[in-house]
Amino acid sequence: GTSGESKRLEAIEVQVDNKGYDLGIEYRTHIQNIGWQDWKHDGEISGSSNQGLRLEAIQVRLTGTDASRYDVYYRVHAENIGWLDWAKNGGNSGTEGFGYRLEAIQIMVVPAGSLAPGSTIRAFESNN
Fold first, then answer.
1. What is the pLDDT of residues 66-88, one digit of tens each?
2. Residues 102/54, Cβ–Cβ less than 8 Å
3. Residue 73 in contact with residue 107, Cβ under 8 Å?
4. Residue 96 pairs with which residues in a beta bridge?
5. What is the separation of C-alpha 117 from the centre of its chain, rounded to a whole number of angstroms?
6. Longest dimension (CA), the chain
7. Rounded distance, CA 54 to CA 52, Å?
8. Does the first or last residue of the chain, that is N or C, have fewer Cβ atoms within 10 Å of its Cβ?
9. What is the C-alpha separation between 79 and 70, in angstroms, rounded?
């Protein structure tokens, strides 16, 4: 994505380089006027296309028999806020009830139990 350019994310597809482990990734997005979509997996598109609808939040989690060996951290750059803190293993990242667009998403897979890449206090903001 971008930051500081006022461009919205409308869809995302995520894949993990599993380096020979039984490791996959699934994710779902919260879309303007629609809400949470169903979970998508390993390169499937989550979001919308040709509808001009913004992503507002995301959840990400690992799958496969080796998933317990890793944690997935992710954070978003939200309109009028900037970078929010890191969410982990399926937690909400983004906003709800503000009408703010996601502009960028960062995702990291780390060994289970590793320290977070930064603060985890403010990963999601709700106005509901």
1. 999 999 999 999 999 999 999 99
2. yes
3. yes
4. 126
5. 15
6. 43
7. 7
8. C
9. 30
- By three-state DSSP, how is residue 69 classified? helix
- Look up tokens 């609808």; give the residue: 53
Centre a 10 Å sphere on the Cβ of residue 88 and count the other Cβ atoms it contains: 17
Contact 28, 107 (CB under 8 A): no
3-state secondary structure of 68: helix
First to last CA, the chain: 26
Token digits of residue 59: 């959840």
DSSP assignment of 59-128 equals EEEEESTTGGGEEEEEEEEETTTEE---EETT--EEEESS-PPEEEEEEEEEETTPPPSS--S-SEEE--
Distance CA 117, CA 128 (A): 28
pTM of the predicted structure, to 2 decimals: 0.94
Closest to 36 measured CA to CA, from 52, 13, 59:
59
Task: Give the residue from 101, 79, 92 showing the smallest Cα distance to 33.
Answer: 101
